[in-house]
Design goal:
The structure holds two protein chains of two kinds.
Chain A (H helix, E strand, L loop, with lengths): L1 H20 L7 H11 L16 H15 L4 H12 L18 H21 L9 H18 L1
Helix pairs in contact in A: 2-3
Chain B lengths: L1 H25 L18 E4 L5 E3 L7 E7 L4 H17 L4 E8 L3 H10 L5 E5 L3 H6 L6 E5 L5 E6 L4 H17 L1
Parallel strand pairs in B: 3-4, 4-5
Antiparallel strand pairs in B: 1-2, 1-5, 3-6, 6-7
The chains are: A mainly alpha, B alpha/beta.
Chain lengths: 153, 179
């Protein structure tokens, strides 16, 4: 009984914690700046986001994003401003809407090609069927069965 | 049948990769045509480095404008400066304007550099880097060629030489003359 109560309390506590973590809460200006700069590529770094880079250029970009957020610009408007200056290159993830978005199709295409290759190979070779035993093998098996039955009495 | 299709797909993918790489390696790495090229030059108004007033891009409307982003800490900027000086002297009494934009440094250092390097053309200070960001600058030196129509016709990343400068300027002057 006690164990059941304990399990129920634990499940309720877990559900409560999950609900609390997933509760809808208002995104602050700092959250928005962090989200936008995490998606922007630092122009003077190697594969770093503007959020993570300590370079002067990244700092200036963070300041610009923060100012635009304070001015009430939407995320899309802020991203469009950087796209106008640097092109889609400025985004760490290629946008789906542009031709660079085709890169997202590459894993799917490779997987499909691999599946097609394996399926084709299996079909062409076929599943190996066991061959029927020869007369000699059948005779030997019968002799063995008879021997074992005789031994068991 | 499926295996054959897969094989063809692999061959097509490899061919596509080879063609893409071949085209990419043929491009001049100094001429990256992203963002602002072939678009109207972003407008700006900046303080002169010596503090003697403000300069707007609109002040040079109808002229060929060579915008050069530079900094004293940038060694390639020092390397390209003699070419810029010669080109400035060549076009100083014409419809061609060279405008230097000092980038990511204090005005004192920028002004000292300008005086030390014999730079006579107008130099302005992009204190917060906003103009550089609006032009899509990666880092100095970078040079943009703006036509009389106010459109960025070309951009050069890295140190520029006299021939590249003159070729780009003459192309824009030629276009202006035929308009």
């Amino acid at each position: 009984m006690n164990r059941r109560v304990l399990i129920a309390i634990a499940v309720l506590a877990l559900a409560g914690a999950l609900a609390f973590a997933a509760r809808p809460h208002e995104t602050t200006a700092d959250d928005r700046v962090a989200q936008i700069t995490a998606e922007l590529r630092c122009p003077v770094c190697q594969g770093l986001s503007v959020k993570d880079s300590t370079s002067e250029t990244a700092r200036q970009m963070r300041d610009l994003v923060a100012q635009r957020v304070r001015e009430g610009k939407t995320d899309a408007e802020i991203e469009a401003e950087f796209r106008a200056a640097y092109g889609d290159w400025i985004f760490l993830s290629p946008p789906l809407a542009s031709w660079t978005g085709l890169v997202w199709l590459v894993p799917v295409a490779v997987l499909a090609a691999g599946l097609a290759l394996v399926t084709g190979r299996l079909r062409s070779t076929g599943v190996p069927q066991p061959s029927a035993p020869s007369t000699t093998e059948v005779a030997a098996l019968r002799e063995r069965v008879a021997r074992e039955e005789a031994a068991e009495g | 049948m499926l295996a054959r299709v897969a094989r063809i797909l692999v061959v097509v993918a490899i061919l596509g990769l080879v063609v893409t790489l071949a085209l990419a390696f043929r491009r001049d790495p100094h001429d990256i045509r992203t963002g602002t090229v072939n678009k109207p030059a972003p407008a700006f108004t900046l303080q002169r480095l010596d503090g003697s007033g403000r300069v707007s891009l609109a002040d040079y409307s109808g002229k060929v404008v060579v915008v050069n982003f530079f900094a004293s800490w940038c060694l390639p900027c020092i390397q390209e400066n003699p070419a810029l000086v010669r080109v400035y002297e060549r076009y100083r009494s014409s419809d061609v304007v060279i405008l230097g934009i000092n980038y990511q440094e204090t005005r004192e250092n920028g002004l000292a550099y300008v005086q030390r390097m014999g730079i006579s053309w107008t130099s302005v200070a992009d204190d917060d880097g906003r103009v550089a960001l609006s032009y899509g600058v990666f880092g100095p030196p970078e040079t943009f060629f703006i036509g009389p129509d106010g459109v960025i016709a070309g951009r050069h990343i890295g140190p520029i030489d006299e021939e590249t400068l003159v070729t780009a300027i003459e192309k824009l002057r030629g276009q202006a003359a035929t308009r």
